Fold this sequence. Notes:
two-stranded antiparallel ribbon; two-stranded antiparallel sheet; 3 helices; about 35% helix; flat
Amino acid sequence: MALFSDIGAKISNAGSSAVQKTQDIANIARLNGMVTEEERKLNNLYYQIGKLYYSKHPTDFEEEFTGMISSVKEAEASIDSLKQQIKDIKGIVVCENCGTEVSSAEIFCHGCGAKMPKKIPQVDENTMVCPGCGALTPKGMRFCTNCGKVLAEASAPAPAPAPAPVPVAEPVPEPASPVPEQVNNTNSMYEYSVPSAQPAPSDEPAAAPVKKCPNCNADVDDDSVFCFNCGAKIG
């Protein structure tokens, strides 16, 4: 009987130990969750403190905050630019009086009744202005992407460019051949023609005859005593 009692005690102790481990794991998970929640609250407080400091000191901040505040300003400018691009695509403008978003085609704000300033869309080579709502539409579209109006420019084909005129070369006249002038003397019995012009005599002296070597027949200078080709004496 003692043997069975020992086995039962061991089983009971093992079960109690397992239950305790399960409770410990549950308590650890619960405590970790509480730590995570407190850390979230702490980070939110840090965020609120930093945002409050930035709003109170946008220009007169300490030197160690220069880099962080510059990054915040750059991020804000980038966000504003992206939001404005989204509004431009949607054809929406913001009322300066009450801040209500109004279609760019509206003349008056439907929130406060203020007159909306007419905004000139920035058109480039890839966009066109819809004549119905004034929204920017990509070129080549048959209908406006904002109001659905038929676009005349897309339906009408573009005229083909006129071909450039081809230059025609003018014919060059051939020079007339000279005709010898003939003179007729009606008072004389003889008919004669003007003789053609003779070439003028050249002032250059005639080339002197070349002196030859009696041994090898090579050309030598007049004042040479020996031939430069064979070395024979020139007589």
